Amino acid sequence: QLQLVETGGGLVQSGGSLRLSCAASGNIFSIDVMGWYRQAPGKQRELVTSITSGASTNYADSVKGRFTISRDSAKNTVYLQMNSLKPEDTAVYYCDLRYRLSYYYTSRRDNWGQGTQVTVAS
Question: Which of 39, 48, 74, 96 is least enclosed by beta carbons within 10 angstroms?
Answer without folding.
Answer: 74
